[in-house]
Amino acid sequence: MSLTSKAAVVTGSTSGIGLAIAKALAREGADVMLNGFGEADAIEATRAGIEAEFGVRALYSGADMTKPAEIAGMIAEAEGAFGRVDILVNNAGIQFVSPVEEFPPERWDAIIAINLSSAFHTVRAAVPGMKARGFGRIINVASAHSLVASPFKSAYVAAKHGIAGFTKSVALELATHGITANCISPGYVWTPLVESQIPDTMKARGLTKEQVIEDVLLKAQPTKEFVTVDQVAAIAVFLCSSAATQMTGANLSVDGGWTAQ
């Protein structure tokens, strides 16, 4: 397939799943706007590398996903630079692991803001242009935790369940406008986000690092393997294709069989 002449905004795309999706879209010819935190030099090297490798335009926005005005500004910047935003991938996310009675309220608020509310703000800003052009692909990276729960992750599970419902509602609203909205729900993917939660899980459950990986993370997935970022990215590319035109409001599990149990 080809996404030449299309433009994408991918939040949380300076590393992990988001970066893999941005690169996969660029490989198919789409201009991309990156977003996320990190060292300025490393982000610039990533941005320039995408342009050099794939021959597309790549921009970067440092918009803070907890700030609605900055989110709207990012979408406006992308539309101004590319002339359009055809593909919106909401991938930005953070995690915190804690018993609910000890869960810091500020951590709850940040997770809901970044993992859930930011998707509302990006969609709200991008949909008018998509409607005007009669085309749009909204992809929300959810999680197996949009379908099932785990202990000590109350905010994350609440946010991901919310993303699944939000996606369905948006899909129904936009069904006659040539715009689709779908979720991808990965299981455990070996990314900095997953790796960073291991120490908190060790503390919360009284386990070693090896026990967390084998008895908590991979225990959930019957394949006993981590999902890869490239596998998730390939599904995102498919959802942008003409073959997926009639797929909307779906929640696609990529979790090694986790939610089949």
UniProtKB/TrEMBL annotation:
<dbReference type="Pfam" id="PF13561">
    <property type="entry name" value="adh_short_C2"/>
</dbReference>
<comment type="similarity">
    <text>Belongs to the short-chain dehydrogenases/reductases (SDR) family.</text>
</comment>
<dbReference type="InterPro" id="IPR020904">
    <property type="entry name" value="Sc_DH/Rdtase_CS"/>
</dbReference>
<dbReference type="InterPro" id="IPR036291">
    <property type="entry name" value="NAD(P)-bd_dom_sf"/>
</dbReference>
<protein>
    <submittedName>
        <fullName>3-hydroxybutyrate dehydrogenase</fullName>
        <ecNumber>1.1.1.30</ecNumber>
    </submittedName>
</protein>
<keyword id="KW-0560">Oxidoreductase</keyword>
<dbReference type="GO" id="GO:0032787">
    <property type="term" value="P:monocarboxylic acid metabolic process"/>
</dbReference>
<dbReference type="InterPro" id="IPR002347">
    <property type="entry name" value="SDR_fam"/>
</dbReference>
<dbReference type="InterPro" id="IPR011294">
    <property type="entry name" value="3-OHbutyrate_DH"/>
</dbReference>
<dbReference type="InterPro" id="IPR050259">
    <property type="entry name" value="SDR"/>
</dbReference>
<dbReference type="GO" id="GO:0003858">
    <property type="term" value="F:3-hydroxybutyrate dehydrogenase activity"/>
</dbReference>
